[in-house]
Each structure stands twice: as C-alpha cells, then as structure tokens.
Amino acid sequence: MRRTLNSILITLTLLLALAALTLGPSDITVGETLSILLGKGDSGSRHYIIWQLRLPRILASMLTGAVLGFSGAIFQAALRNPMADPFILGVSSGASFGVAIALALGLSSLIGFPVAALIGSVATTLAILALSFKRKGATTTLLLTGVAINYILSAAMTLLMVMNREQYQRILYWSLGSFSTATYSQVVVIAGAALLLFIPLSSAHKSLDMLLLDESTSQALGLSVSAVRLAVLLPASIATAICVSYFGVIGFIGLMAPHVSRLLVGPKHKHLLLPSALFGSLLMLGSDTLARILLESGELPVGVITSLLGVPLFIYLLRKGRYRYG
Amino acid sequence: MRNTTTRNRIFLTVMLILLVPTLLFSMAHVEKEGKAPDRVVSLSPNVTETIFALGKGETLIGRSDYCNYPEEALALPSVGTLYNPSLEKMLSLEPTLVISSAFSGDQFLAAVEKAGIEVLQLDAQETFNGTYDLIRSIADAVDADERGELLILSMQNTVREIAIKAQTGSRPTVYMALDFGSFDSAATGDTFLSEMIEMAGGDNVAKDGLHWTYSKEMLLFHDPEIILLAPRWGESAEETVAAFKNTKPYSDLGGRILTFDADMISRQGPRSAEALKLLYNLVHSGE
Predict the structure, then answer these.
(1) B109: Cβ–Cβ under 8 A, 6 or more apart, which residues?
(2) Which of the residues A38, A169, A250, B153 could staple to A177 if both were Cys, CB 3.0 to 4.6 A apart?
C-alpha cells in the first residue's frame, strides 16, 4: 500500500506537471508546447512563456507544496497537536506583518517584499520559541504563545492597513499568495532548503514518533524532548519562512497533507513523511494551475483555491477513513 | 612611484572627462531611436483614459479589468487587475510597453521588465500639477507630445476658470462620501478629493479628519449643506441614496444629497478638469 501510494503520487504529480505546462491563457497548443520543450520551435514570446513563466512556476509550486506538507507533519509531531500547521509559530503573521511595516515605512521598494517577509517571519518564530523555552508543559505554552502572537500581529497589521488604505489591497493580495513571478533562482533556493529539511529530518523519524508521546514517557526513553523539538522545528520553520517570503501565505496544505497521509498510511513517521510531502506537492501544483486558468483574465489567489479544493477532499477522506493520530 | 601615481591620476581624469560627452551622445542617440511604441498595455484606468484622449487609442492592445472609459477601452482584452494580473496573458499579447500609474503587485513589473518589455511606472503627485506631469509622461511615451500640451493647456484653463469663480460667491459646507456605514470612506483633509472640493468653492467639513474616515458625531455636528455620494459598487445612484437616507445616523442629516461619478473625480487624468467643473456645479447647485 505504502510503496504503491508513493509511486501513484509521484506519477500523478509528474503527469499534472506535464499537463500544466500546456495549460494557460495564451494560445499555445499541446504540440507547440512539446516542440518548445524539446528545444525546437522558434523563440519569442511563446518560448518565454513556457520556459520562463510556466516551468519555474510549476517547479516552485511543487517544491513549496512539498516543503509545506512535510513541515506540517513535523509541526504536528513536535507540538503534539493535530491542528498544528507550519504557520502556527508566527511564520505567516510575522511575514505579513513584516510586509505591512515595510510598506508603511516606505521601505518596500528598497528592500522588497521577500526580504521584509523573511525578516518578519524569522524574527517572530524566534521570539515565540524564546518566550516559551524550557517551560513546564512546553508544547501547550508554545502553541498558546504562537496563537497569541498571531492574534496581535494580525491586529497590528490590520491597524497599519486601516491607516494606509491605498496599500490595503497590495498587502491583501500578497498575503493570499501567488506563484506568478516565480524565477529559477527562487526554485533553486527552495530546492536547497527542501533538501536541507528533508534529508536530516527523514532519518529522525523515530524521534518524531517519540515526540508524540507525553513528556514523561519520552524523557524516560532518554529523549531530550525540548532539544529535539527545537531541532526539528527550526529547519521546518525556516524552510517554510523562505517559501512564504517568496510566494505569500498559502494555507491549508500544511495542515491537510499530513492528515490525508495519515488516513492512508498510518501515523508512523517512517511512512508518513514522504507522502505528506508528495501530497502537498500535488495539491499545490493543482491549485496553482487552477488559479491561473480559471479566470478569463487575471488570476485567482492560490491560497483561495487550496482551501476551496482541499477542504471538501479532506472532509470526504475524514468521513471515509479510520483516523489514527498517534 | 610618484610619477606613476600622477600619471595614473591624469589618465583617470582624462577618461572621466571623456566619459561625459560619450554619455550625453549615447543618451541623445538612444532617445531618437525607438520613439513610438506600437503595442501598449495599460494597467491603470487613468492611463487608459489619457492614451485615448491623446488620440493614440490604436496603440493600446491590453488593459486592466478596471479600465472602463472610454467605451472603446472595453473592447480590449484585459490582463487582470493591478493586484492579480496574469503575466502570461500579458506576454501573449506581445506588448512593447507597459504603463502603470500605481504600484502593482510587488514583483510583477520586475518580471515584465525581465521579459524584455519596457515598463513605465508613473508615480503622480496628488495635485493637478501631478496630473499634468502624468499626461506629459504618457504623451512622451506614445509620441503625442503636442497633443499632450494642448490637452494640458485646455485643462489648466478650465481649472483657472473654476478657481476664479469659486473665489467670488458662497462657500457651502460639503461632505463627500465614497462609502458610508460602519466602514466609511470620506474625503478627509489629507486626500486630493478634499483639495478639489476646496478648489471648487466648497467648505469640506471633513478637512480636519485623516485616513479616509470621519467621525459620525462630527458629521452630525457640522450638518453640511451639500452631501456628495458616490454610487456603491453594484448599486444604482438611487439605490445608494435610498440606503443612505435609511442608515443611522446619516438619516438625521438635513443637507442636499447629490450623487457623482467616483471614477471621473478620483482618477487623475484627462477628465480631471471636467471633474472639477462638475464638482463646482454640484457644490453650488443649491443656489
């Protein structure tokens, strides 16, 4: 079942990627797409559209989906909470707030949204981790601190937007997420972050299983709980922060992908991590493709599609399957 | 050692001196070439209006969703709005120039430039002079400089005429609302609309307010003689006025309620002088 699932997911993703290369608002036929991909066909705007617009975008959405799905599983283990997603420790609110502050201070053209977002999300995550470090009942403290900080940053951001109404739409659309300006250099950076995340943490699957046990049991088993928690949360947060700073806040994938995987392969992290990443990748690619082909002109924010698409699927699977969390 | 340093310095100075005419020459040369772009995409409604007003509507091959004036603009394909544009759609139209008068989605224009398309991003000051500068820049980009100057002159005449008329005569109190209710949008003192009201001979009651929101208490206290409402999205003028009259506390206001075309008045473009004239007429309509 598990091997088959992973192969099915990989095949589906690749097929969708190929299909996505042929889809878009410009009039490029499938035949033309294939010849452009194979290096034939004239250069010009069509070549540019396939190679510089669609392909980096497809790669970016696949990689971001994988990072978010994988990180979602990590967060749910480290925080021992099935409602956790990669944004719960301030990555999304910090990023949006960073962008709002940069706009309000007029710095946005100087440093650019991605840098402002990255500073905001990393600073917020570190603050939350520091505020709840080494407390008794650490996961609860961590979660609640994260939730509280999310609220306050959200309020601060709304205040900034109310005082700068002209910028309101800009921040709103940025925060809803978009892959439309994805470049190959961004793809490379995210691929690097993904590898640095996946490789070490995949081999830590036993520790992740143990994190799900309550504090005393895991300590009795010799696990330095807070150290491990920190060691897995940091790379997941940073990789997520990089994705958010490039492409905005795209919700629900980080929450949903691990749960869907759990429904199909069970909760052991040895089997859970790869499908979480693959599901995330497939869902994100599908959502982004829909986001750019549904409207006659313009695009829909991809964060809207991930929820509209993901939620019914999720509820369907929840009702159908037997759920085991830990 | 000394000789080498001095020699180097002389060499460097000579090179720098020669650089200046080289730069000037190449700049002049570049400006002469590539003067009239054939295919323009406008991302802002006021840019679209200006291009048509300059008689260069045939250079436009794409617009944004909100570009709705003049009517010919609606026949053009849209690339989306300023905040969710489709880069692919825009590139498939094969433009040579993209003009925007506001900041778009952050990396969008950079991506357009990267694709080798010239981008003109205009940042107009919120004054009539800013509007004239905007028209001038667009006229230069589409090779309609003379027509642009004529347009600006005619606008300046209208503005001057209104300013003179407004100085003599009464100054009725005015409140202008683009939206009302719990989330209101009023022409507070920090907006260009407020300035236009004053120029048109009105006394804007909301001029001590900021950030497009005005206290309803203060509004009731002032009870302005003229209330200017913009029809809300999806509503007709009559519907908006009826809703206004039925919403507390606006229902307690005694002033004359008039509607106006928000697009025409808020867009900095060729219709701005006419908008000022319209505003003058609305403000003095009680006389």
Answers:
(1) B98, B100, B119, B121
(2) A250
